[in-house]
Structures are given as C-alpha cells and as structure tokens.
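Predict the 3D structure for this chain.
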Amino acid sequence: GLSSFEGEVAPWYEYVSLSHHYLTRPSRVATPSANCTLAELGFEDLHRLLFGAGEDGEAADGVQLGEFGFYCCSQFMVHRDRVHRRPREWYLRVSEDIPWEHCATSYMEVFWHAVFNDGALHEQKRQERPALPFFLRVDNFIETTSDGLV
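Done. Predicted structure below.
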C-alpha cells in the first residue's frame, strides 16, 4: 500500500525530488554570487517573505539557514494535494508582491522543496525514506558540500 515517510502523515508520492545531486550547505545562502551582492532581496529576505520566518535565522523546521541539505536543480513531482495546502492567496501574493529578479529566482532552486513541505528547509534524502519505492531510494552521488559551487 501507499504509506507516508517519517514525521509526515501525507503519502510518499505527494512530493518527491527527482534530481540525484544532493547538496549540503548551499554556498549561495552564505555568500551570494558577485552579481547578487546588490540585489533587492537576499536569501533570508526571500525566506521571510515566502514563509513568514522570523529574524532568528531559522527555518520552520528549526534548521539554521545555510545548514541544510536538498536536491539540486528544481526537478520534482508534487501532487495537487500538496499544492493545495497553501491557499490561492499565498500563491498570488508570492507571484505579485515579490520582486522576481535574477537573484531571487536563483534562490528558488533552494526553496522549492520547502514550498511544498510546510516551509521545512532540510529535505530528507530519498534513501532515508523507507516508504519510497526502492528505485527512488538509490543514491548515485557522493554527498558533498556545495561551498563555492552552487
């Protein structure tokens, strides 16, 4: 049958990253690229606008901003039930009120999984989710920090 993964009541198929490259401590969080140093929004600013996070530098899951892991490259599947967890007004506010320039859109690569996982920044690795079908739990890459890379 369909089951949920640790700490969540939703079925596994509601959100799955499809990329194979898992990154830890994304460097763009701590040190924006040279063309983003004067950007209107920094990483923490966008995080606050998206998820209403406070000034304490923590995400909804208690993870320090910059100290989390996620699958790179914004490739995922999401079930409509997961999309509908947020009201339509949230999507309208985000699309209309945030100045979506180059730097803000590049930060979204780091935020997509949080959008569909109640603001949690740390994305559990697939091989740590026993409810996933085996072929989705295969880890093809050595986990490394993205310091200086992404």
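The CA atoms of residues 46 and 135 lie 34 Å apart.
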